[in-house]
Specification:
three-stranded antiparallel sheet, alpha/beta, single chain, 14% strand, three-stranded mixed sheet
């Protein structure tokens, strides 16, 4: 704080701080001043618990969802493996006792037809190239048409970010889509613990030292590989030639 104050009328004091001028003091409820300022009223009689709730994560739009059973998490961790290239491999955390996975292929096909009909050819060509690059990178592969086990089809669409410096178009898959009275794939999966760091804690740690380092992992979520046991579980539909108006 800078040591500079200017007393004002009605008991108000202007204080010069590093973030600018701050005004402290009290204003009577019956004040008829023409100038209006932003004020905060604090009731000192309320318990400190109210302040703890004010700084809780829920007030920042973050809700903890640690709903998975500890026994399930321990068992699931045992299924995590490492591939030869160093990437982690895991299974989809299907809920214990969940009934058969629904195909939902019909809704995926209906939404794909709508996507092809309303998307401009230029964007379809770019989206097609993004999917082809995912194949070359080993993130997706052609489905086994002779597979007879459980599988579900996800609707997808391109999300276009004009101002993005790197990936301007990326695919987004809808795991909540489902046919009427049928569960989605999200309904079949455990939610698991909230692994997102607390925003307030991150900001406080950022200010502990003079120099802060930041880093980003390219396509971080795609670096986790699905084990062969669940390799055919999640599918999506696309076309060989994006110039076609509708899939064959």
């Amino acid at each position: 704080m800078q040591h500079k104050t200017i007393p004002g009328a009605n008991g108000l004091v202007a204080f010069a701080s590093k973030v600018g001028w701050l005004i402290f003091g009290t204003i009577g409820v019956n004040s008829k001043a023409e100038e209006q300022v932003l004020t905060a009223t604090i009731d000192a009689q309320k318990p400190m618990m109210d302040f703890k709730e004010f700084w809780s994560l829920e007030h920042m739009g973050i809700t903890l969802q640690e709903k998975a059973e500890p026994a399930f998490l321990e068992a699931y961790q045992e299924t995590i493996q490492r591939a030869e290239d160093g990437r982690y491999m895991g299974l989809f955390p299907i809920k214990i006792g969940h009934r058969r996975i629904e195909s939902n292929r019909n809704i995926a096909m209906i939404l794909l037809q709508g996507l092809l009909g309303k998307t401009q050819l230029e964007d379809k060509l770019k989206y097609h190239e993004i999917l082809q690059q995912c194949i070359r990178d080993g993130f997706i592969e052609e489905a086994d048409l002779e597979f007879t086990g459980n599988c579900t089809y996800l609707p997808h669409r391109p999300v276009i970010k004009v101002g993005a410096e790197t990936t301007k178009i990326r695919p987004v898959f809808d795991g909540s889509a489902h046919m009427k009275d049928r569960p989605s794939i999200n309904d079949a999966l455990e939610i698991g613990p909230n692994l997102s760091p607390e925003v307030l804690a991150v900001l406080l740690r950022l200010r502990q030292n003079r120099i802060a380092w930041t880093a980003d992992i390219t396509q971080a979520f795609l670096q986790v590989e699905i084990r062969p046991e669940h390799g055919q579980l999640i599918r999506f539909i696309w076309i060989d030639d994006p110039r076609k108006a509708q899939p064959d």
